[in-house]
Amino acid sequence: MERQEIEIFLTLAEELHFGRTAERVGVSQSRVSQTIARVERRIGAKLFERSSRRVTMTAIGEQLRDGIGPAQRCIEEEIAKATAAGRGITGTLRIGFSGAFTGHLLHSVAALFARRHPGVDVQIRQVQISDPYGPLRAG
């Protein structure tokens, strides 16, 4: 399977809707349909059951999704790491915060940042409001 075929297949497996899949992948709905039909011909089995109201996965489709999904995610992570390294987005990001409310929000933002930039080690530390610059001066 080619990269775009894998992307279309995995997106359709997640969305179970040709229109939303087309929108997410950035191709036409007919391109999604043609791509899936081509992959099904190559494999020799239906991957999805389609009706005018529903799209469901067949057992073979589920098996293929479960087999290539983790590999695709691993490939995407490694490409993201290489891209980040090429752009110089590596190293350690240390963040200091004070206040419980800020901490909860900051952890969510830091998790998103870490997913987008896997080459960066994100470290979060609560600092005392009485000495906000102490940890910064200490390195």
What report would you give on this structure?
Helix 1 (3-15) crosses helix 3 and helix 2 crosses helix 3 (29-43). The chain contains six helices and four strands. It folds into two domains: 3-85, Arc Repressor Mutant, subunit A, CATH 1.10.10; 89-137. The chain is an alpha+beta fold. Strand 1 (48-50) and strand 2 form a beta hairpin. The termini are far apart.
Features:
single chain; 139 residues; Arc Repressor Mutant, subunit A; two-stranded antiparallel sheet; 14% strand; elongated
Please outline what is shown here.
This protein has 139 residues and is an alpha+beta fold.
- The second-level CATH architecture of the largest domain is Orthogonal Bundle
Q: Report low-confidence residues grouped into runs of 5 or more.
A: none
Strand content: 5-15%
| CATH level-four homologous superfamily name of the largest domain | Winged helix-like DNA-binding domain superfamily/Winged helix DNA-binding domain
CATH topology of the largest domain: Arc Repressor Mutant, subunit A
Number of strands: 4
Gap from first CA to last CA: 49 Å
Biggest β-sheet description:
2 strands, antiparallel
The structural domain count equals: 2
- Topology order in helix (H) and strand (E) letters: HHHEEHEHEH
Using the coordinates above, name the CATH class of the largest domain.
Mainly Alpha
Number of helices: 6
Fraction of residues in helices? 55-70%
Shape: elongated
Average pLDDT across residues? 89
Strand order of the largest sheet: 1-2
Radius of gyration: 22 Å
State the secondary-structure class.
alpha+beta
